[in-house]
Amino acid sequence: MAGATTLTTLRAAGHECQLAAQSFTDEQAAQGLAIIDELRAVFLPPASSTQAASRLLQLPAELLSVILSLLDTRDLALLAATCLLLCRDAPTPPPPPSQIGPVETELRRRAEARGLDVGSSLHTGATSWVAYLLKRDRRDAQMREAPLAVGHKHSIFVDKGGRLLTCGLGYAVDPAGNLNLRREIGPPTPVPSMQDRRIVSVASSYTHCLALSPEGEVYSWGRGNFGALGHGDEGARVEPCRIESLSRIEHIVAGPNWTSAAVDEKGRLFTWGRAILVEKERDEDGEVEEFERPIGLGCELDAEAEYQATPKRVDALSQDRVVGVALGEGFTLAVTDAGAVVSFGFSRAGGLGHGSLESEVLPRRIEALTQTRQRFVAVAAGDSHALALTEEGELYGWGDEEANGHGREELTPQRMAALIGTRIKLVSAHDFASCAVTETGELFIWGSSHYYGLGYEGRQVTPTRVAGLRGVEVAAVAIYATHMLPADAYGVVWAFGQRWNLGLGASGPEVTTPTLIPRLGVRVLNSP
Q1: What's the confidence (pLDDT) of residue 442?
Q2: What backbone phi and psi angles, to 5 degrees, belong to 25?
Q3: Domain annotation covers residue 299
Q4: Are residues 164 and 114 in the same domain?
Q5: Fewer CB under 10 Å: which end of the chain, C or N?
Q6: 3-state DSSP assignment of residue 396
């Protein structure tokens, strides 16, 4: 226990040093490097890393299994690269268990424990089972844990200690008893009521927020119209409150139009919030007509039900294991463990990807993506556009022209021409904006920008690299039309857009280039 405490202290000190190093003189930098060399001598004894790995192999198999189970993906990757006996990889279909190395055995155990289908043969482009399983384990964890979220005039963070922090404008009750964004929080500040709880992931929309604990508990706060908070009523919550009907959740999404979604450890999808969207249109005589559009909850509700106030399982996907979900303006996307993408809800501007503007009450597979014969691993959605990412890092976009990456409306998914030849590892979308992060950590953005929220004013229809982050390896990102938050591989957070959304105060010009948020480090999963 003492050793763990020491390592935690060292990590915190290292992060503080990294932030301070930006103002070091040459002499101070040289002294810092000398200290690092001294620390390296402490933690690296004369025995080579190969000898250390060999000592691991001398342990009983049961004990070695326990040790490997406690390592994260990055540490497993380092261990596999250290000793071929630990790795013992085979680029063929799975050999007998006796011929599988300890690292591969542990990775297969993790996948099996989560009910994931590893398959009997490597996918196209993969040459190593260990490398493939490491990448998949990393991506699976990345889908579950989001340390950043942005919404209307606020931002949310999970720091390295698992604390929930917010900045911008917070919710407060006005004299009339209404919940409004009235309380200025200032810089990223811990949420007082959550000080005794740890958080691993956050999500936010224009009106409400969600937070996820390591144990799979979900907390919600903000405006509760149409049951968006999942507590069985339409009441607002100033502080995070646990959604009692949800347990062992691994993925959360707060969507526009008062909707929310969650995926549990068994891959079951739950949705709640607004179910019917009433739209008004004028006919040829100028008369106003009202149309009821089904919103993408994916559940059969009573004919007169306008919302679902508590989380309800999407039974139409009971035969599938959902590994990712995204919410647009009235529609839902879900990606399954088999690599298929389904959509349902209101097809504004073709956001469902089925080639028409017809709505879908229940989940329907997007055939245009199935025909590519690619395995899809992630989805993202904005107001009326959507993105889907393949296992090989290829990105497809469709829907409204503002942010689908094509500069024209597309009713079916099309591969993004501007990113052909570039491997993408992360995608995110919100409102009328989108972004993608490459395997090497480069950040690309496109869409409509308000107040220079994306580093430019107006419209950028095709992906453009953020020049201000050259040399920074982006590992996590959250995007909104008015501001944006990238975090690097060390958890250092950069930001640009409206100042008060970023906790930088209301005075002064908008932040048009990525600017470091001082004294903040978020929980980021390092790449293997």
Answers
A1: 94
A2: -80, 170
A3: yes
A4: no
A5: N
A6: strand
